[in-house]
Design goal:
With 218 residues, the protein is α/β, with parallel strands linked by helices. The chain is built from eight helices and ten strands.
Length: 218
């Protein structure tokens, strides 16, 4: 089997980015303004951290924006290598992003709740480079777009992975204790973690090592 890629999210500063990369991270996630959830930092700080990320490590801008013009403007400032679209972005906007940012990878987040989530994922698959399955809820009055610390129904995630034809990242409540089970259940291209490797809000080197060891990559 191919090695499972690891994206460490909610990076707060350049020191955390270096810690994640030293542990073996293939990508780091930088969270911009969200309606709720942890890890939010300014666009200016995201840009500073993104400049410090050495290739081939990928830098993900997590955005809650849903219109192409606004996302393009934010990317111009932050200059990450990947755009992680945490809310549902209309397909017409995805097509604009694909046309106007051809060198930037697009990752659409799908918050896995029920059968509608499967339909949403498969409909978006032809318009993006990858999907990321998380455990938020866009249907709430205050949307949850990530960082919940909850798992979701991995059977639905497995179905999406088998049908979408794209690299798929699995997120949502992953920890050193459950990541091996999650990978066995879904067989994703990569996993995405935030709260599961933090203590008192800070990236925890011991938890990071335990996470990679649980994946057989320690």
């Amino acid at each position: 089997m191919l090695r499972t890629r690891v994206k460490v999210c909610c990076i707060a500063n350049a020191d955390e980015a270096r810690m994640a990369i030293a542990a073996g991270a293939d990508a780091v996630g930088l969270v911009s303004a969200m309606p709720s959830g942890p890890g939010v930092i300014s666009d200016a700080l995201i840009a500073d951290i993104a400049r410090s990320i050495p290739p081939p490590v990928a830098s993900f801008l997590l955005t809650s924006r849903v219109d192409a013009e606004s996302i393009i403007g934010q990317h111009a400032l932050c200059a990450t290598t990947v755009l992680q679209l945490c809310d549902h972005v209309p397909h017409a906007e995805l097509r604009q992003l694909r046309t106007r940012l051809p060198a930037v990878k697009l990752v659409q987040v799908i918050h896995v709740i029920d059968e509608e989530s499967v339909t949403e994922a498969l409909a978006a698959a032809s318009l993006v480079d990858a999907l990321l399955l998380d455990s938020g809820n866009q249907r709430l009055a205050v949307k949850e777009l990530g960082g919940t610390g909850r798992t979701h129904d991995w059977r639905l995630s497995r179905r999406i992975r088998e049908q979408c034809g794209l690299p798929l990242f699995l997120a949502g409540g992953l920890t050193p204790a459950n990541v091996a089970e999650a990978v066995a259940a879904v067989e994703p291209f990569g996993v995405d973690l935030c709260s599961g490797v933090r203590s008192d809000g800070r990236l925890d080197a011991d938890k990071l090592r335990a996470f990679f060891a649980a994946l057989g990559q320690g």
